[in-house]
Amino acid sequence: MSLVEVMVALTLLAGVMVLFITSFLHSRRVTESSVLNAACTSLVYGIVEQMKGFDYEGLMPSYDIDAAAPAAVRDLPPYIRVRINQDRTVWLRVVHTASGAPQAPTTTPLPTATAASLGAIDNFIGSLPLSTVTGSASQELSLNLWIWIDEIPDTAKDVSEVKKVTVVYTYSYQDGGSTRTIRDREVFLRTRYDQ
Q1: Per-chain mean pLDDT for the chain
Q2: Integer Cα distance of 171 and 149 in angstroms
Q3: What distance in Å separates the CA atoms of residue 145 and residue 140, rounded to the nearest whole number?
Q4: Phi and psi angles of residue 131, each rounded to the nearest 5 degrees, phi first
Q5: Range 52-59 contact pairs with CB under 8 angstroms and sequence separation of 24 or more
Q6: Which tens digit of pLDDT belongs to each residue from 23-54?
Q7: 179: which residues sit within 8 A by CB, 6+ positions away?
Q8: In the chain, where are the structural domains located?
Q9: Lower CB count within 10 Å: N or C terminus of the chain?
């Protein structure tokens, strides 16, 4: 075997190894992105399920003074109180439309939209270690929630007590040297009925 053949073989091997490492890193990035998406979605769905479980009267929003709430929330109702995990309770401020046209967006807002531009209140949950949701501490999620509660009765159709709850959530995480930001929304209705 000549020196030229060895050099060609080493060049080919180096090229294959670079492609292999590149595909491995891309695969890891996609997997981590999927885990973060699942973790954030799980957290948001947990909050939504808590809201769905509230009694209609106490569903939301609360205008009561809650001495346990942080001063910034206690002094500026309306808000709802939910648990993030076993150790952490948060008070989320909401936009409540008791009468008039619903204020919540009908589609997922653009990534450039801000809470103020949509008339929402930005609830920054904070940087949550993934161990809060997944048990892994390799990454943190920064989560923001915007919540609208619109009363949408339709007396012409004998619907008098219906609440439409819209939750827009935005989370961000580090992806290599850049920050990725994802936005989505959940909408559900709550009605009161007599059994």
Answers
A1: 80
A2: 21
A3: 16
A4: -60, -20
A5: 52/188, 52/190, 54/80, 56/161, 56/163, 56/190, 56/191, 56/192, 59/149, 59/163, 59/190
A6: 988 888 878 778 888 888 888 888 889 888 88
A7: 172, 173
A8: 3-191
A9: C
